[in-house]
Amino acid sequence: MAELTKEQKKEMLRKWRADQKKKYLLNKTNARKLFSYLRRELSKAPCDHTLKNTEKWIDEHCPPEKKDGILEEIKEMGGFCDCEVLLNCYERYELE
Fold first, then answer.
1. pTM of the complete model beyond 0.90
2. Domain tally for the chain?
């Protein structure tokens, strides 16, 4: 693998810092509730590779005008199905 240039390293650091300051549409409290819900649902039936449970929870707990933005936010973090929401989004919402 090629060594990163100084400019590439600076850009990566800038992006990382911006991500640390980002305000998410789904706050930490609601993110915790979503993750708990997904754990329960996925223990009942395996992931069907959709966002079915995530979308259901958002529909029931978030304002309708925020749904598209929250889903986009989740997908940007790598959450393209319910199990990926748990695996890829958890740390980004800084919940550990």
1. no
2. 1
